């Protein structure tokens, strides 16, 4: 076991653990924050081009109905791609489990918060319930979709990287996104559909396809940024090394 010297110039200083130079803890922190914030933002329904109508067969494109977390949740998959590409499946899985645990903690905390008796001067109880109220079916849908989707996203990316090594990063990013986002969306919609008023197969299929396409396209659009982040981290991460010949 390593010992901390108390001789010489160190004897008058307190002892502290060493903080490594890895970017991993930063990504885990941002990853978890994105999940928590997007879950709260998702309580607001959002409609784009509400006065327009555009359909392809049974698929309704416009108006585009989504939730307030639409612009932020894809970032969780982008960070998940960085974690998987740079640190591997085990490290990405650890981050996913950390985010999962924090989502459960947030849900329990909000449930306890709403159960506390409001002070006489507090007049925002109903507004608070509308924003952070825990709906068991929607909570289960979100947690199940997130866990399965993120694990599949990480697993597929790492499997493709085992075959392609450092080449064809675009194939890993797109391939993992398609699989992860599809099952994330499918599981969430399957569990949550009844709770949000979807009662027909036509509406269900539309809900799944539009949600999946939006999330996947969003990640493809920001892929150049994902490339830059991954390349930067690989160059500056002390423990990352590229095998000879790659």
Assign a percent range to the helix content: 55-70%
- Number of beta strands: 4
Alpha-carbon distance between the two ends? 37 Å
**Mean pLDDT over all positions:** 84
Backbone shape? flat
For this structure, what is the CATH class?
Answer: Mainly Alpha
As a percent range, the share of strand residues is 5-15%
Structural class: mainly alpha
Explain this structure to me?
Belongs to the vitamin uptake transporter (VUT/ECF) (TC 2.A.88) family. Q precursor transporter subfamily. Its main location: membrane. The chain crosses the membrane at residues 21-41, 61-83, 95-114, 134-160, 172-198, 204-227. One of its GO terms (molecular function) is transmembrane transporter activity. The chain has one domain (23-115, 126-236): Arp2/3 complex 21 kDa subunit ARPC3. It has eight helices and four strands; from the N terminus they run H-E-E-E-E-H-H-H-H-H-H-H. The mean pLDDT is 84. It is mainly alpha-helical and 246 residues long. Helix 1 (24-41) packs across helix 3 (89-115), helix 3 (89-115) runs antiparallel to helix 5 (136-164) and helix 5 (136-164) packs antiparallel against helix 6. Strands 1-4 form a two-stranded antiparallel ribbon. A two-stranded antiparallel ribbon has the order 2-3. Strand 2 (54-56) and strand 3 form a beta hairpin.
Sequence-ordered SSE layout with sheet pairings:
Elements: H1 24-41, E1 45-48, E2 54-56, E3 59-62, E4 64-67, H2 73-87, H3 89-115, H4 125-132, H5 136-164, H6 169-192, H7 201-221, H8 223-236
Antiparallel strand pairs: 1-4, 2-3
Helix pairs in contact: 1-2, 1-3, 2-3, 2-5, 2-7, 2-8, 3-4, 3-5, 5-6, 6-7
